[in-house]
Structures are given as structure tokens and as C-alpha cells.
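Invent a record, attention on C-alpha cells:
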Amino acid sequence: MPKLWTNSGDSHFLEPEDLWESRLPRRLAALTPKAAKDPDGEYETVHVDGQSFRRKLPTSAAVTFLEESRKAAGIRDAGLRLGDLDQEGVWAEVIFPSLGMWASTFRTPELLKACMRASNEWALEEVASVSDRYVVTAQVSTLTVEDAVSELEWAAEQGFKAVFLPTRPHPSAPDWHRNEWEPFWAAAERASMVLAIHIGTDPVDFTSERVGVAYRGPGGAVMNYTETTFSGQRAAMKLVASGALDRHPDLKVLISEGGATWIPFLGDRMREGYRQHRMAVRPELKRDPKDILMTQVYASFQHDESAVAAFDAMGYRNVMFGSDYPHMEGTYGHTQDTLKQLFDGVSEETRLRITQGAFLELFPHVPPVPVGEPV
């Protein structure tokens, strides 16, 4: 069968571990995360921004899982990455960072702002410059709103088209539904910057031995994996219910890797809450909450058969495929098999909208699949 080409609303890149330390002034570089294994071999001591804590090292199974997801050559090399994409039939992709997972541990605004700028400059030099098929997400400090606005405006001037946001901001900052973030939403709308929110990125408490673990016991692995999807749904709910998207109708949001079928359901639930509890609703919205969610929020998935039905049967047009390259939950190594299973017997209109159309609606600057290539 001919290759089916797709764009991807979700992929990842692994930055050099010393990126921040190598690019920051010495006094700030000394505060960036550093870890040393304890003599017992089961724990490590982490020093970051004047704080120190011990944490249990991952199990051998978890380490193996992580290492397997990093074997793809293109996770560290943007040039080699194009070969991986061509092999898989992925044309263009949204690329999320990896090092930024430490952002929630910082407490000094100057340090976090400097780290985000260093990451953005590196991404421009080492990834974005390699190919216009890459939609690299900018990073901003969410410790203070002012710093976030400043970095977003700088990133837009440099050509970034999307900004990565965690599902919740820094623990010391107001949550996304608070009015303090209004200047940021306004700045993003002015810059036509897509808010790219990746599931499972709530601030991490690295002092806990239960990092990434909500459940233990029977079914724990499946429940912990499933749990990560809910953070993206909560972020979308906050942006709609707070009126942020209603006030900024040109602002677009991408929730990556969390599936798509939840959008119509969440819209129904929010519509019901708005209607049945109207006397307590603040703020009042100019538009129906479900309509806001269905039109301004895009959602990427990788394996979910129900996501195709969300487009065909539920009227949700902003469904977008995402390969999650190169994570083990993704489709790397079997993207073509996955696409052919998902779209077997599906109309060409549906397939093209999910694989290419929704992506190009968010990122019209990306060149389409070349004429003559199978689509």
C-alpha cells in the first residue's frame, strides 16, 4: 500500500543535559539542577536553586523503559530526525522540550527566566534552523506573569509559532483560570501564538518518592498512565470556564497526547453546569462553553480509534494525529500500520482533516506535503 503521510501534533526532543549550565552566567549556572548518587546506590541527592533533597532512583525496569524511548537517533539530532520522520511518514511535527520538567523546582524568577531564554535560543539554533517542518515550542517562565509575557513576545519576534505550557503553572503562581494571566492570553492572541499544552505536565514534587505515581497495587501501571490524561482536560476546562478563550476568540489551544473524544463530553458537561447553575456562574460567557471548547481547542491522539469517531460522529473537527515520537507510548516504528488501521474504511475527507488539515489550520506557515508524495 502507498505510504500515508501525516503531520504530528505531539513529539519530543532531548536537549543536552548541560544546556543551562553551559549558557548561563556562572552565578546562575551554579543554581541549575545537579544530582549525585548516594553511596547506597538507591538514592541520589539533587541540588537546585539553593535547595537540596534526596530522592529514590528509578527502578531498573523504569530505567530500561526510559532508555528504550531514547534510542531513536533523531531525539538528540535534528538532522537525523528528518530520516526518522520520512521513514514513518510524518511530514511536520510539533516538538516539545524535555529539560523544562525541572522548571517547577525553581524559586528564583531571574534564574528560571534565564533558563527559559537559554532553552529557546538553543532550540532556534539546533532544531528550528534545520527544517521548516519543525514547529518547535517556545518555553516561558510561569513563576511570574510578567516574565511569561516578556518571553512570549520575544519568542514571537524570533519566529516561534507555539508556546509550551504545563497543565498547571508554577506552584507559586496563580492557576490558569485566575485573572492575573489575562495579559498573557492577550499577548498570545496578538502574536497568533498557539498555546501548546502537553498532558502529564503538572508541577513535579521531586522530593516525593511517588513522583509520577498516583496509584500502587493491582492495576497501578494502567491507572497511572491513564491519570496523566486528566490534567489536559482540566487545563482546557479552566481556559473555557474562566472566560479566557471567550475574551480572546482568536486564541487557539492544542492539548497534546490526551486523546480527542473527551472534548465533546467535557463540552456537554460544562454546558449543563453553565445552564443548570447559571445563578452562580461567574463570569458570564458571551458564547456557549461547548462551542468555545469545540472550536478553539485542538486535541492530538496517537492510537485511539474513538478519536476518528469524534470527528465523524460527534462533530468535533479539531482532531489531530500525533505520533508522540519517540516515546514508547507513541507510534514510532509502526506509524504506517497505525494509520492504516485507524483510517481503514474511513472517508478521505476525515483522514486528511485528522492527518493534515487540523495541523495546517494551526500552523499555516508549514509547507504542505510535496506534490507527488502519497498523502
